[in-house]
Amino acid sequence: MKRLLLSSALTALLGVTSVVAFDQADLSTLRSTNACVGCDLSEAFLRLSVFNGADMSEANLEDTIFLETSAIGAIFVNAAMTGVGVDNTSMRDANFSGATMIEANFTNADLRSANFAGTDLTGAHLTGSSLNGADLTGANLTDAVLDRSFMNATNLADANLTGATFTRMSLETAIFCRTIMPDGTLRSDMTCEPVPVMEEMVDDRSSVERMMAE
After folding, report:
1. Residue 22 and residue 11: Cα distance in Å, rounded?
2. Which of 54, 56, 163, 179 has the most CB atoms within 10 Å of its CB?
3. Rounded to whole angstroms, how far apart are CA atoms 35 and 128?
4. CA-to-CA distance for 66 and 87, rounded, in angstroms?
5. pLDDT, tens digit, for every residue of 141-197?
6. What percentage of the chain carries pLDDT values higher than 70?
7. DSSP at 84
8. Rounded Cα–Cα distance for residues 170 and 180 (Å)
9. What is the pTM of this model?
10. How far apart are the first and last CA of the chain?
11. What is the DSSP letter of 42?
């Protein structure tokens, strides 16, 4: 994380728009078509860019920096985003489901109504971010930092918050259902819906039997 923050600071200071690890052709494809599924954009420096609705599913975005950028409704399904830096950027309504986001930095990011279902956010920094209405169902937030973040109606069902920190914020309206809390205890609020049980399809089997008999 220190390496990522230092890289971000130096890049911004020097006014460099990108670094050499990513594939320039892939970045050009993203900018021209607003889609780059499975592309290599690792360590790219993306500042003052607009990627609203862009499809970056399964892309390599490790250590990529999004600074003062708009990616509203963008798709990052199953993307590799370890060490990604998202600062003062709007990713409202974005879909990150299944993405690996270990030690990601989402400082002051707009993540309202974003889908983080099944993501790995181990050690991620979400300080000051807005997660109102976000779906964190089944997300791994072990050792994550969520200080001063906003989590009104945030869905934390089946999420793992072991060792996570929540200071100077409120979780009163967040949804807890089989959620592992920072101290390792399990929390389920009264609004928690039970795990659905598959009903025996007796009628369907009877119908099949009748069809076979005919």
Report:
1. 15
2. 56
3. 29
4. 6
5. 999 999 999 999 999 999 999 999 999 888 889 999 999 999 999 999 877 765 554
6. 80
7. -
8. 17
9. 0.80
10. 68
11. T
As a whole number of angstroms, the distance between CA 169 and CA 39 comes to: 37
CA 92, CA 132: separation in Å to the nearest integer? Answer: 10
Which of 94-116 are b and which e, b meaning 16 or more Cβ less than 10 Å from the residue's Cβ? bbbbbbbbbbbbbbebbbbbbbb
Neighbouring residues of 185: CB distance < 8 A, sequence distance ≥ 6: none
Closest-CA residue to 101 (of 116, 76, 120): 120
Answer yes or no: are the C-beta atoms of 66 and 41 closer than 8 Å. no
**Phi, psi dihedrals of residue 86, rounded to the nearest 5°:** -125, 105
Would you say 68 and 89 are in contact if contact means Cβ atoms under 8 Å apart? Answer: yes
Nearest to 112 by CA among 73, 167, 61, 145: 73
Tokens 């230092």 sit on residue: 6
CA distance 16 to 144: 30
Place of tokens 């009264």: 190
Question: Quick one: which of 136, 110, 142, 99 has its CA closest to 124?
Answer: 142
Q: Is 212 exposed, middle or buried (0-12, 13-18, 19+ CB in 10 A)?
A: exposed
SS (H, E, C) 107-173: CCCECCCCECCCCECCCCECCCCECCCCECCCCECCCCECCCCECCCCECCCCECCCCECCCCCCCC
Nearest C-alpha neighbor of 49 from the set 76, 31, 32: 31
Measured from the Cβ of residue 18, the count of other Cβ atoms closer than 10 Å reads: 17
